[in-house]
Design brief:
- The complex is a heterodimer of chains A (835) and B (177).
- With 835 residues, chain A is mostly beta strands.
- Chain A is 8% helix and 44% strand.
- The relative contact order of chain A is 0.08.
- Chain B has 177 residues and is of the alpha+beta class.
- Helix content of chain B is 15%, strand content 44%.
- In chain B, the strands form three sheets. In chain B, strands 3, 4, 5, 8, 9, 10, 11 and 12 form an eight-stranded antiparallel β-sheet that branches.
- In chain B, strand 8 and strand 9 (115-117) form a beta hairpin.
- The longest helix of chain B is centred in the first third of the chain and has 10 residues, at 2-11.
- Chain B starts with a helix and ends in a 5-residue tail after the last helix.
- The chains are: A mainly beta (835), B alpha+beta (177).
- At the A-B interface, strand 5, strand 6, strand 7, helix 3 and strand 20 of A face helix 1, strand 1, strand 2, strand 7 and strand 10 of B.
- Strand 6 (118-127) of chain A pairs antiparallel with strand 7 (87-89) of chain B, so a sheet runs across the interface.
Chain lengths: 835, 177
């Protein structure tokens, strides 16, 4: 009984509603929100595939299907790249009405007759009661769908018509993908906010709240180790209040939120460590005739009935104040919960102050949210919305304040050009960091908080002023000139992130590889700076375009068929395909076939590991291969009926000079074992059951090599075996302020230790790295590249062995750093207990 | 240039985004102009069905008055989301309908013959009878959306207008039955 209770408590502790689609299975006791999400354990590679319908929508003049598809893939990549989420997204290909039925859950992007006034909608499909019982922690999504217009000209008002490259359309795509993954609206100015209050851009498409939302639904070890949480209850006259929005807002910029359960309890997950002001704020009223405030899908109760909205109330900061200056900052620590952050709020019948939009004018185009250059001339933003003005005058008692001290609102007044807008002049703190800033609006009776109402930046947006297409000995390049470009500027050619060839300070030009494209394809060129600004801020929906060169392309796959339930290497040989690493997408048009890994082996050669799930439908399917912006003519592929005599191999990797382990799948085999790696026989292989081990020859360069295994008379399908780089090496450890860790200055439990590590490789994210200290696994707080090695920061766990107490004898513990299974040799760390 | 800036501001305000649904605000004249049929009646017989990968709920409306389009006694229309068997797809922002309640619906039929409510909830008005006259009511779409694409204020977002006024408005837009 105690164990059951402990298990239930454990579930309750972990549960969080966030802004997702939820169901409750109990009326009383601890209410545990059960979200709808993809069951990653049932999806090969924990990768949800998305498919694009083969329907050709009617686009705006100058737009193209290639651009539209590239923007869709880029929007999916935004969610795929969240390294503290366990979910991955990949393009599964173009699907037609005749494509085979898929059994593995996936996402369909379709084009339909959306009525005027509607740009997109989408959402997940689930079994209505989800088979939910008291022990199930989520309801699996069977399929999600995004519907886009078959005729884009049906949406005519600005910011639409929305060309596919536009800020507005991209935000819509990322938003709709968020819904397909299980996220609802949130009220915290992320991409899942309404466009009214959205505070993100194409350059920085996700806010902390979006990352918290997706990592709460699909947590990783890193997200659980590195984020904290806040819990409490919102009541009105002693009764719990459902659907109150509770927000943890850092004066430094991040804001993370959730909504309360029916009994008013809440738990905000995914909060980066730091200090936060906490506030409870009502959801905004429904728009038009929407069925629910904020247009949310209401939660369902145990009888699968909608749980009613709890009502409006006065916004309140913790502890019990409407003035954020009197709010108590709450410190959130990694892997810790701050409890009892409770609110007793006062109900009100209606809201007038809500749903505010903020704008600025870096050039002649209105930009939302406001971006204000502290070194520029236009030190003001505008706001528009309910409760701000009355008859072209400020509403009585209206006050606007910025949170955090980076800027002050020096004056507010009706905008001279249109008195329904409020102009807010800003004075800057000279030491202010760039980033998002929050605002609090207040009138005689209401307080409204808008996270990320404006961004401070230190220069103007990037501008693409001129473009040159260059053919450099057969390599197609783009040379881009303009202002406020730098080595950190990313260039989008339609929806393709161009590979940089460098920035020349002297000429102030960026050079990038031109993506592969159909000959004559005209692509929009957009510059994105890390400060959140884009060249679209200045150009609006009229960016410079480039006409790309291309050649007729085609490809063949070898083999062109695989049996169901196997995994194999496939070689793709192309003609004029111009493969560029990172710019190739491959899909088989059915979610039961998964591209596990892909290597660009040359301009026209691609090597791929493909898994055909055991439940895949036998029969013909299609192959969609995209190189850059060019979708090649669809290829054909056959899924053969399952064959119990086919031997296949699980993908594996090992470093040169080490021992590799590979699992065999298929028939039970026996006999002499022989291994061929890159068509060379390898001596010393041994088979134990289905587990094969063999020595990886020394001197092999890191990369992918075909592996074949023969056991008796059975020869396996080939698989790409990955020769790993050498294991990482820990070269030193320092305290956070730079002091070397040694016997004179031991590491202390609870402090951050920075390890210097060589050999981690490129593009390292913290979620891939595991640091084992004295037998205790740690997920890094951060991994930063520095002069050829990495600095891995770890919060030293209190569980690490630490010598005798009282603190007289520090002890030495072994430290290993692992990435993707590559484990360093042990490094010795001197540790003592904290004082 | 100031004028240009102002127009740019206003043009930036005409889209609202509902959960799972991205909407462009249509004022009452936009609804009238873009609809292919405007009817008053009660909604019944709603049921879900797949249309491609998406689930839609298909409903009938028993028409008591046709304000635009060919007069009819029945019409079918669809809203995204719904239930097929035990599979449910939730599309927030999609309107729902109460039995016995009378609505004015602004419908749009695509060239492919697919009929939906314009702008989802925007094209659904509930008819409420007061002591004197029936009134078509649509809750306010937030003030921020009370501008059309040209920056002109839409007078009737958050609409409460008598049916007589609505008929007159439609007549002024030169639409007939």
């Amino acid at each position: 009984m105690k164990r059951l209770l402990a298990a239930l408590l454990s579930i309750a502790t972990l549960a969080s509603g966030h802004y997702s689609f939820v169901t409750y299975n109990t009326r009383t006791g601890t209410l545990v929100p059960i979200p709808r999400k993809f069951d990653l354990s049932a999806i090969p590679g924990r990768t949800v595939q998305f498919f694009i319908a083969d329907t050709a929508p009617q686009l705006l003049p100058g737009d193209s299907i290639a651009s539209l598809h590239s923007q869709i893939r880029l929007a999916a990549k935004v969610w795929n790249d969240v390294d503290v989420s366990d979910l991955r997204l990949s393009f599964g290909g173009i699907r037609s009405a005749s494509s085979p039925v898929s059994f593995t859950p996936s996402i369909e992007v379709t084009f339909d007759d959306l009525p005027p006034g509607t740009l997109a909608y989408g959402g997940p499909q689930v079994v209505e009661d989800g088979g939910v019982n008291s022990t199930q922690s989520f309801i699996p999504i069977l399929r999600s769908v995004v519907a886009l217009p078959r005729n884009f000209s049906n949406v005519q008002s600005s910011p639409c018509p929305c060309p596919s490259f536009s800020e507005g359309f991209f935000g819509t795509l990322v938003h709709e993908f968020g819904h397909t993954l299980g996220l609802q609206h949130s009220m915290t100015s992320g991409v899942m906010a309404t466009s009214i209050t959205r505070g993100v851009t194409k350059s920085r498409p996700l806010a902390a709240d979006d990352i918290a939302g997706i990592s709460t639904l699909y947590p990783t070890r890193a997200s659980q180790a590195n984020f904290g949480s806040i819990s409490g209850r919102v009541t009105a006259q002693g009764a719990g209040l459902a659907y109150a929005s509770v927000v943890a807002m850092s004066p430094a910029g991040a804001a993370v939120s959730t909504v309360t359960n029916p009994d008013g309890t809440y738990r905000i997950e995914g909060i980066p460590p730091g200090q936060y002001l906490i506030y409870a704020q009502p959801l905004p009223p429904p728009q038009g005739n929407e069925a629910f405030p904020a247009g949310m899908i209401p939660a369902l109760d145990v009888d699968r009935r909608n749980i009613d909205f709890g009502g409006y109330f006065d916004t309140q900061f913790f502890p019990g104040t409407r003035d954020f200056n009197f709010a108590s900052p709450t410190t959130v620590r990694a892997a810790n919960n701050v409890s009892e952050i409770n609110f007793n709020v006062t109900r009100r019948n209606s809201l007038t102050l809500h749903s505010l939009q903020t704008y600025s004018f870096p050039g002649q185009v209105a930009v939302q949210p406001g971006f204000v250059n502290t070194n520029g001339g236009r030190n003001f933003i505008l706001a528009f919305g309910g409760g701000l003005t009355t008859n072209n005058q400020l509403s009585p008692g209206l006050q606007v304040r910025a949170v955090g001290g980076a800027a002050n609102v020096s004056s507010s007044r009706p905008y001279s050009q249109d008195g329904r807008f409020v102009q807010m002049d800003l004075a800057f703190n000279p030491f202010a960091d760039p980033g998002a800033n929050h605002m609090v609006f207040q009138n005689a009776s209401e307080v409204y908080v808008q996270p990320s109402a404006f961004w401070l930046v230190q220069r103007q947006p990037p501008q693409v002023a001129n473009l040159n297409a260059i053919n450099d000995n057969g390599v197609r390049l783009l040379s881009i000139g303009g202002t406020n470009l730098s080595a950190e500027t990313r260039i989008l050619v339609d929806g393709m992130v161009a590979t940089s060839r460098g920035y020349d300070d002297a000429s102030q030009r960026l050079t990038v590889l031109a993506p592969s494209a159909a000959n004559g394809h005209r692509a929009a060129v957009v510059a994105l700076n890390p400060d959140g600004q884009s060249s679209l801020f200045l150009s609006g929906n009229n960016p410079l375009t480039v006409t790309l060169e291309g050649s007729d392309s085609s490809f063949v796959t070898s083999p062109s068929s695989l049996p169901v339930g196997t995994e194999s290497m496939i070689e793709i040989t192309g003609v004029n395909t111009n493969f560029i690493d990172g710019q190739v997408s491959l899909g088989f048009g059915v979610s039961d076939v998964v591209v596990r890994r892909m290597w660009v082996a040359g301009n026209n050669r691609l090597l791929v590991n493909v898994l055909v799930a055991a439940n895949a439908p036998a029969g013909p399917t299609s192959v969609t291969l995209v190189s850059g912006l060019q979708t090649l003519p669809i290829g054909s592929f056959n899924l053969l009926p399952a064959n119990t005599r086919v031997l296949s191999l699980s993908p594996a990797s090992a470093a040169s000079g080490s021992t590799a382990t590979v699992q065999l799948r298929g028939p039970s085999v026996s006999g002499q074992v022989s291994v061929q790696l890159n068509d060379r026989p390898i001596a010393g292989a041994a088979l134990n059951g289905n587990t094969l081990t063999f020595p990886v020859p020394t001197g092999l360069a890191a990369g992918a090599l075909p592996l074949r295994v023969t056991v008796g008379s059975d020869t396996s399908l080939p698989i790409l075996f990955v020769v790993d780089p050498p294991p990482p090496q820990v070269t030193g450890a320092t305290a956070q302020l730079g002091a070397n860790i040694d016997a004179n200055r031991p590491a202390r439990l609870g402090e951050t230790i920075v390890f210097s590590v060589a050999g981690l490789g490129d593009m390292v994210s913290a979620s891939r790295v595991v640091v084992n200290i004295g037998g205790i696994e740690h997920t890094p707080q951060s991994v930063q590249s520095a002069n050829g090695f990495h600095q891995v920061s770890v919060l030293l766990s209190n569980s690490v062995p630490n010598g005798t107490v009282p603190v007289t004898v520090p002890m030495t513990v072994p430290v290993t750093v692992a990435i993707d299974g590559r484990v360093s040799a042990a490094f010795s760390l001197v540790v003592r207990a904290s004082l | 240039m100031i004028r240009f800036v102002q127009v740019s501001i206003l043009c930036g305000l005409a889209a609202i985004l509902c959960p799972a649904t991205t909407l462009e605000l249509l004022g009452i004249d936009g609804l009238i102009d873009k609809s292919t049929q405007v009817v008053r009646g009660k909604v019944s017989n709603c049921g879900g069905a797949y249309r491609g990968a998406m689930i839609y709920t298909h409903c009938s409306v028993t028409i008591v008055e046709t304000l635009k389009g060919v007069p009819a006694t029945q019409a079918r229309f669809s809203v995204p989301g719904g239930k097929v068997g035990n599979i449910r797809q939730s599309i927030a922002g999609s309107p729902d309908f109460q039995p016995g309640v009378e609505y004015v619906l602004f419908l749009w039929t695509s060239p492919n013959g697919f009929t939906q409510i314009i702008g989802l909830s925007q094209g659904k008005f509930e008819v409420r009878s007061t002591a004197t006259t029936p009134t078509a009511v649509r809750a306010a779409i937030s003030d921020v959306a009370m501008l059309d694409g040209m920056g002109q204020e839409v007078q009737d977002a958050g609409v409460r207008m008598t049916l007589t006024s609505l008929r007159q408005r439609m007549a002024n837009r030169s639409v007939g039955k």
